[in-house]
Specification:
By secondary structure, this protein is an all-alpha fold. About 80% of the residues lie in helices and about 0% in strands. It is built from 11 helices and no strands. Helix 3 packs across helix 9, helix 4 crosses helix 7 and helix 8 packs antiparallel against helix 9. The longest helix has 27 residues. It is a multi-pass membrane protein. Keywords: Cell membrane, Membrane, Transmembrane, Transmembrane helix, Transport.
C-alpha cells in the first residue's frame, strides 16, 4: 500500500513540477515520513524522480513543438542551462557537508515573499511580453548561478523560484519558462544523481518507482501545457496553490 501511495504521489509531483514547481515537497514527504528514509538518502533518492520528470517534461514539450525558437533565444536558453548547472554543482557539494535545516528555515520565509510577488499584478504572469529584453550579464549570471546552488542543494521549491525569475525578471512567457526549467533541471540533476549514487545515498528500488511516476505525470502535463490555450492561466493558479500549501506545511505541519 505504501508503494502504491508513493507511485500516485510521484505522478502528482511530476504534474506539479512540470506546470509550476515544488513537487519535491510531495515526494520528500513520502520518502521521509511515509517510507522512513533518512533525510540525506531521501534527498538523493528524490533526484531520480526529478531527473525522470525533467526528461519526460522536456520530451513532452519537444513533441508539442515548444523548442521551435529563434537562434538568439536558443543561445540564451543554452546560457541559462550552463550557468544554472555550474551553480548546482556547488549546491550539490553543500548538500553533502551542511545540514538542510538552516536552508529550510530560510526557505519558509522566502515562500511568503514569493506568494506576495505572485499575487501582486497577476497580469505579469499571464501576458506574454512583446519585444522581451535580454538581461544584462551582470544580472543574469549571478541570478541563474544562485538558482543553481539552491536547486543543487535541496531542489524543493526550485521550480517556484525559477519561474519567478524567468517570468518577472527575464520576462519569459510562463509556459516557455517551464520549457527552460525542464531543460535546466534535467541537466544538473544528471550530475546530482551521479554524485549521490557515488556516495551511496540513493535507494534505487524506491527511487526508480517514483521516477516512473514522475515521468508519467511530467510527460502528460507537458503535452497538455504546450497545446492548451489556457495552460498559462492554469500554471499560474497551480503556482499559487503550491506556494500556499508549502507555507502551510512549513509553518504548521
Amino acid at each position: 500500500m505504501f508503494y502504491l501511495i508513493a507511485l500516485v504521489g510521484a505522478i502528482l509531483a511530476g504534474a506539479v513540477n512540470t506546470l509550476s514547481g515544488n513537487g519535491s515537497a510531495i515526494t520528500l514527504t513520502i520518502l521521509m515520513e511515509l517510507l522512513g528514509l533518512p533525510a540525506n538518502v531521501a534527498n538523493g533518492t528524490n533526484r531520480l524522480g526529478v531527473l525522470g520528470n525533467g526528461f519526460a517534461a522536456s520530451l513532452g514539450f519537444q513533441r508539442a513543438g515548444r523548442f521551435t525558437v529563434k537562434k538568439e533565444e536558443r543561445v540564451e536558453m543554452t546560457r541559462v542551462v550552463v550557468i544554472t548547472t555550474l551553480g548546482a554543482v556547488l549546491g550539490i557539494y553543500l548538500s553533502l557537508i551542511i545540514s538542510n535545516e538552516a536552508y529550510r528555515a530560510v526557505f519558509r520565509y522566502l515562500l511568503i515573499v514569493m506568494l506576495v510577488v505572485v499575487l501582486v499584478k497577476p497580469k505579469r504572469w499571464l501576458v506574454a511580453p512583446e519585444g522581451r529584453p535580454t538581461l544584462p550579464q551582470w544580472l543574469s549570471i549571478p541570478l541563474y548561478f544562485a538558482l543553481g546552488i539552491y536547486g543543487g542543494f535541496i531542489q524543493m521549491g526550485m521550480g517556484v523560484f525559477f519561474l519567478a525569475i524567468m517570468v518577472l525578471v527575464a520576462r519569459y512567457e510562463i509556459i516557455q519558462a517551464n520549457v527552460i526549467k525542464a531543460l535546466v533541471v534535467t541537466a544538473y540533476t544528471l550530475i546530482a544523481v551521479a554524485i549521490f549514487s557515488w556516495r551511496g545515498l540513493i535507494d534505487w528500488p524506491i527511487g526508480l518507482l517514483m521516477a516512473a511516476g514522475q515521468m508519467i505525470g511530467g510527460y502528460l502535463t507537458a503535452r497538455f501545457a504546450a497545446q492548451h490555450p489556457k495552460a498559462g492561466l492554469y500554471a499560474y493558479r497551480l503556482l499559487i496553490i503550491v506556494i500556499i500549501a508549502a507555507i502551510v506545511k512549513a509553518f504548521f505541519l
